[in-house]
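Why should sequence recovery work at all? Because a backbone constrains its sequence more than one might expect. Tight turns favour small or flexible residues, buried strands favour hydrophobic ones, and helices have their own preferences. The token representation captures these environments compactly. In the example below, the structure is given first.
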């Protein structure tokens, strides 16, 4: 089944760890524009930057790309995506939430998400990458996911899941295949409207992960695998790593 799809790129200016992050330049091109270009390469219906800051809005528009102003009180990128979809009249079957701090996202990853939504009964699709290094398991900023044999998410956590009581410390990656979540989502259009109406869940509050709210309320998330790990930019130090990445 062929599904139409559009990408929304949430872009806030007032990041606590890196204010102005979407406008930070990576080798002469702003981060938000790099994300836009990568999404456009996937040949979607529309690619739209959703922001609450006039500087980001003007920057995107001045370069000929589509942007829309949204409220400044959203608690998540999902809420900002949904408002942008409503304001811009996006009518695609699938709405992609492409993170504004993933300047090296690959079109193939977007296609993998769309394949999930075409081939399964998923309400929501997302991606994960196999973990190769032990330090990822201990890093609470790296979200881990476990899934069933059909690819449906069972749980997301900042902790190491599953725990291996009988495996030697420091060798868990070699004794079990772990997966790190890639924070990019595909929602069915009708599902997106329902997600933003849900109250904050207990699991979400405990882990500070909005996808747990959806799972608590019975929505099905299918997880596809990707072999490409692109450096996300959360801090000024990450920006320097991204610059070196692209120059290599």
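From this structural description, the recovered sequence reads:
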């Amino acid at each position: 089944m062929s599904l139409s799809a559009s990408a929304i790129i949430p872009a806030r200016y007032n990041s606590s760890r890196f204010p102005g992050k979407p406008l930070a330049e990576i080798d002469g091109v702003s981060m938000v524009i790099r994300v836009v270009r990568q999404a456009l390469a996937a040949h979607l219906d529309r690619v739209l930057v959703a922001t609450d800051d006039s500087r980001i809005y003007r920057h995107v528009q001045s370069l000929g790309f589509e942007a829309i102003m949204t409220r400044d009180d959203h608690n998540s990128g999902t809420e900002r995506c949904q408002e942008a979809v409503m304001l811009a009249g996006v009518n695609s079957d699938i709405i992609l939430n492409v993170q504004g701090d993933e300047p090296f996202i690959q079109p193939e990853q977007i296609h993998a998400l769309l394949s999930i939504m075409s081939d399964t009964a998923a309400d929501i699709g997302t991606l994960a990458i196999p973990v190769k290094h032990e330090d990822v398991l201990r890093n609470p900023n790296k979200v881990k996911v476990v899934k069933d044999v059909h690819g449906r998410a069972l749980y997301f956590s900042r902790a190491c899941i599953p725990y291996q009581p009988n495996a030697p410390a420091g060798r868990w990656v070699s004794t079990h295949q772990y997966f790190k979540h890639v924070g990019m989502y595909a929602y069915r259009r009708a599902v997106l409207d329902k997600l933003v109406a849900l109250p904050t869940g207990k699991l979400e509050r405990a882990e500070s992960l909005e996808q747990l709210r959806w799972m608590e309320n019975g929505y099905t998330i299918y997880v596809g695998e990707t072999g490409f790990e692109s450096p996300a930019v959360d801090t000024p130090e990450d920006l320097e790593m991204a610059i070196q990445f692209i120059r290599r």
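A few observations help interpret the result. The chain is about 35% helix and 20% strand.
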